[in-house]
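Listing 4. Sequential folding, example run.
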Amino acid sequence: MARTTITDGIIEECRTLAEQGFSNVMISKALDVGIATLSKNRKLVQAIQEGKKELAQKVTQSILGSLDETQHTLFIAKRLNLFNPQINIKKPTNAKEALDNLSNAIKQYADGEINESQLRTIEAVSNSYIKGYEFAEFEERLQGVEDAIKKQRTD
């Protein structure tokens, strides 16, 4: 694509397409503007954000307009995460703390405080953290062994 001059018309069209639900890739193709330009040009980024915000408001109003008062209240409560329990985990700094988080999550699940989906999410994150921590520790130990071998060879 050739270098595009960003005009007020392109900015407005960008906002309109975003408001209609176009993705950034679709907007890029429709306007013949590079995807990098869409993500770097402040005016275009702002236009896309405004369009998507307007779309979100329209969709929300449409959903709320089709609900009775009880459904409306439930929708808002779910949207505000009023039904999600507080999960007691800490940001781990080592593998033991990640295991502690997993242990606490299992206890909360067994006590009915969190659902299975929340438990599986904590489990996946904890396991990923533990594997990464173990790998980093293994690399550190291996480097120590290699350094010791090199030192022995030079002595």
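-- end of first protein; second protein begins --
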Amino acid sequence: MRYVKYRGNDNNIIFTTMDTPIQIEERLWDYIDGLSSPEERSAIQTLIAENIEWQRKYKELLNIHQAMNEVELEAPSMRFTKNVMEEIARYQVAPATKTYINKNIIRSIGAFFLTLIAGFLIYCLGQFKWSSQPTSSSFMPHIDLDNEMKKFDWSRVFNSAYTNVFILVLVVLGLVMLDMYLQRKRQQRQAREGS
């Protein structure tokens, strides 16, 4: 960084850095706005008096500052809000619909989760040992369900973190769907009673 020596009004020697144009502009804005310290103000006054680049930039920023002070902000007309509301009233507002979601989408999501639940149940039933022989009077094997439940290794099914997360998500979604169904029934009942 280069330093330049200037002699101030009171014959004190002032050392200042050769600033970039951005730094010059920042220092001049602080000078114009009155934010700089007294020592810095006197150094900037000396630089403006002796340096052509600083003089040119100071005049440019001073003109911008004066132009900004002369410009008044435009205020909206007194009827601005009323004009806007009248313009909106010209257009036909779409009536509120009963639902914004297609019922087929909701049904397909429900069918997807029901399929997942059914697949999980089939998987669990597939883990049973179906070893007993069918009798001649029945085409289905006889299963002692109480005994089979005691022998079944439940840790094979519920030991996986994925299975536990899946069951948790299904339970939460099932409760949400039950809540939505009960709210809809309650709203329909209130609408019938109110009519």
